[in-house]
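hey so u asked for the seq, here:
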Amino acid sequence: MDAEFAALEWGEYTNLISSTCLVLQFARWGFVDLASGFDGDRGFRPSGAMARSVVLKQTPRCARCQLAPRWCICAGLREIECPLRIDVLMHYLEAFRPSSTGDLLRRVVPLSGQHLYRKERPLSPESIVQPGKELWILHPLGEPLPANQSVENLQVLLLDGNWQQAGEMSRAVASWGRRVSLPMTGESRYWLRTQAGAGQFSTMEALLFLLSALGLSTTHDQLQAQFELHVYAGLRSRGHKQKATEYLEGSPVRDSLWALLGEIAAKGQ
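ran it, structure tokens below
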């Protein structure tokens, strides 16, 4: 057992400890039957339902994309250079969810920073804020997007969590920089989760809106392709074949990564 734990990556420790503790605590309160299983993206299932837990059942996952090997998309991963300094403050409950777009950002933009938030373990601004840069904290309740901003002097902090978690993190870091909102319109392309309301988007989509607003079109297009590949594979891994096919209609990933998409589709036959 000791050797197995010694071989775990940091993210795997987080996956194992966070989700297992949640399941045991809710079982202790009588809110869940352990026999029903736990799904990191959808929560607890009623007794008798089929479990998709990758923690309790130790289902193998790719250490990088966190999907089952059958649906691994690492062959399509493209590392992206971004002139904008990007950091993600991720709520610890988000860290073990395969659908997390904050974790996707870490994989495709290696120079971005990822920081785990726990209320009882507050972070210092010095651990995140870069010297000589103006920090923008993206949040829907922030001030309008400033005009004529120099990207070279800018750092953006994304808050990765649900609406309540993002609000808590926003209050914790409010004094660190400038809270900014984006003119985000249209429908979310994040089909892996039901967004809380109209006009609400995933962490990655917020960044895409910002890149577009700053005129960083090349980076935007590259990142959008990685995001939509992530969503497509997530839908296929859940057995939503028809929904995944619909998702590809009009998606830029259909042309840019057609060979990989064909391989994924063949695995689901």
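Residues 217-237 form the longest helix (21 residues). Residues 21 and 260 are 36 Å apart (CA to CA).
lmk if thats what u needed
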